[in-house]
């Protein structure tokens, strides 16, 4: 059940956008070939069930006030005062911190929300910052300053110190073949985690005219479903996979998607590393993924979809998620006029609350968070990150 092209084997039907019928067909075929799969043993040390506030389904949340913190007028005045304070220091933006962006009253709330990310439900939304009342430079300052209370260490997302990314459709302004990731299109993004970050934050400068709903899902809930019904897929996810490096050296890296470390399950993957996307097709001459891995990829997506929560992401909102235990997706969208979807993103880490990382992930984290304040840059306009630039 494979197609061979340009010296690489790709399981039939495996594309960036999962196909439910292909998933069912592959699952049925594998179970027919080996009916013992649902009775396989879990990998050594992996639990039969996770019990935590991180185990939830979208239907468990009945009111968005359960995860939204509404910034008060007093909070916004305190933030505005912090902007003025930082400007008075005449420091490089990389030096934004709790010390240089003082929020004496709001700080305790933000610290509690950070704890919620690490040991609670794993997500929350701050609502809402008055985007149109500030320059782009100052709204970035506010985003970075507030986020320093959630997780003070910022991660590198691109070459040359870039710690701020823009998520925006650039397909109309970029040359053909320049885009290799869905973040820079209006396309649907399937469930994934970002590579090498504890906390992923998104700030909505503007929302789309239609669509673009942000969706999150508990990978711990997905784990429980797999551990109960398809432990063989847990084993598959916990074995090494060939991650495409898209022309870098080495051409691929081998590591699991799923880990269990220090009593915590950690999921780290993005589907495009195994399927390619637009101008970054899967590389030639790297190991193929197996039928079991193809089924596992689809199962992650469709279970993530089944248990997901759609967030009512509004202009001026900041979303924070635990990137180790929650994976996220986005609906396709349509822009029109001023309603042009535009998000900012930070990769963050809180050293005091951070989870213990498995050894296989430590190099990724070292690459992400090894950037000094002086080296940090903050792009004010959208650019395509090097990691998802096409090869043309």
UniProtKB/TrEMBL annotation:
**Which residues belong to any copy of the TauD/TfdA-like domain?**
96-347
Domain of life the protein comes from: Eukaryota
Query: What GO molecular function annotations does the UniProt record carry, in alphabetical order?
Result: dioxygenase activity
Xref: SUPFAM superfamilies: Clavaminate synthase-like
UniProt xrefs under PANTHER family: FAMILY OXIDOREDUCTASE, PUTATIVE (AFU_ORTHOLOGUE AFUA_4G13850)-RELATED, GAMMA-BUTYROBETAINE HYDROXYLASE-RELATED
Cite the InterPro entries for this sequence. Answer: AlphaKG_dependent_hydroxylases, TauD-like_sf, TauD/TfdA-like
Q: What is this protein called?
A: Taurine catabolism dioxygenase TauD
Recite the UniProt keywords alphabetically.
Dioxygenase, Oxidoreductase
Query: What species does this protein belong to?
Result: Crucibulum laeve
* Gene3D superfamilies (UniProt xref): Clavaminate synthase-like
């Amino acid at each position: 059940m494979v197609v061979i092209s340009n010296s690489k084997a790709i399981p039939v039907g495996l594309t960036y956008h999962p196909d439910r019928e292909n998933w069912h067909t592959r699952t049925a075929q594998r179970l027919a070939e080996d009916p013992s799969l649902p009775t396989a043993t879990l990998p050594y040390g992996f639990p039969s069930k996770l019990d935590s506030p991180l185990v939830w389904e979208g239907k468990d949340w009945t009111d968005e006030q359960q995860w939204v913190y509404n910034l008060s007028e007093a909070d916004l005045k305190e933030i505005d005062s912090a902007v003025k304070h930082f400007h008075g220091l005449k420091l490089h933006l990389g030096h934004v911190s709790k010390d240089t962006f003082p929020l004496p009253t709001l700080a305790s709330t933000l610290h509690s929300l950070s704890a919620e990310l690490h040991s609670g439900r794993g997500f929350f939304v701050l609502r809402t910052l008055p985007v149109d009342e500030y320059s782009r430079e100052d709204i970035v300052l506010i985003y970075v300053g507030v986020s320093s209370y959630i997780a003070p260490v910022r991660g590198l997302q691109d070459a040359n110190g870039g710690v701020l990314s823009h998520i925006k459709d650039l397909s109309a302004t970029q040359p053909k073949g320049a885009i290799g990731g869905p973040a820079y299109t209006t396309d649907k993004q399937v469930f994934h985690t970002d590579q090498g970050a504890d906390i992923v934050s998104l700030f909505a400068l503007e929302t789309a005219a239609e669509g673009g709903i942000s969706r999150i899902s508990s990978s711990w809930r997905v784990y429980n479903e797999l551990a109960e019904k398809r432990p063989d897929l847990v084993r598959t996810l916990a074995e090494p996979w060939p991650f495409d490096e898209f022309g870098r050296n080495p051409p691929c890296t081998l590591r699991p998607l799923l880990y269990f470390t220090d009593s915590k399950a950690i999921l780290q993957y993005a589907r495009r590393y195994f399927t390619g996307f637009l101008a970054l097709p899967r590389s030639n001459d790297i190991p193929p993924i197996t039928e079991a891995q193809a089924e596992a990829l689809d199962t992650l997506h469709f279970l993530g979809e089944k248990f997901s929560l759609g967030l009512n992401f509004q202009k001026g909102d900041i979303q924070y998620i635990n990137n180790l235990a929650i994976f996220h997706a986005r609906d396709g969208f349509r822009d029109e006029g001023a309603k042009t979807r535009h998000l900012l993103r930070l990769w963050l880490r809180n050293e005091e609350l951070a989870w213990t990382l498995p050894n296989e992930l430590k190099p990724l984290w070292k690459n992400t968070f090894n950037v000094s304040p002086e080296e940090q840059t903050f792009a004010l306009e959208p650019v395509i990150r090097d990691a998802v630039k096409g090869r043309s």
